[in-house]
Structures are given as structure tokens and as C-alpha cells.
Amino acid sequence: MSFLSRLRARVRSRFDDWRWWYALRVGSAPNCAVCGNEAAWIATSENEPRCFQHIPAEGEEAIRDVRPEDCFTDWDEPTSE
Dihedral sign, CA of 9, 10, 15, 17? Predict the structure, then answer.
């Protein structure tokens, strides 16, 4: 691995760390739509945050990890689909 690729990886990692820090401090971690605990993922079928205890009926194929931009989403607003 060259010096330049290691530098890019380090910068990308730092930028990702900063995005999470900012999202969690300025926004807030989404809360589970079922119980209100901190969400670990987003149920794509229902388009709502879920905690570890409330996996959607479709299973792991219907979830994705929480992303920094999810910390700024108003999950109480109905989606326009």
C-alpha cells in the first residue's frame, strides 16, 4: 500500500469519525419507533428506526445501519411516497 493511499484512507476515516461526532452531538440518535430506545438500524420496509429488540417481520434483509444523516431526520413526519 502506497503512502498516498494510506493517507487517503486516514483522511477518509477521520472525516467519517467527524461526521458521526457532529451528527450525534448536533442531531441526536434516532429512537426506536416501537419502544423509544436508541435505534441501531432503519427498517427499510416501514421506513422507521428500530432498536435491537424490534427486528421487522421481513428479517435482516429489510434493515440497514443507521447513518449520520439519519440523526437529522424527523421520523415523526410522514414520508411522501
Answer: positive
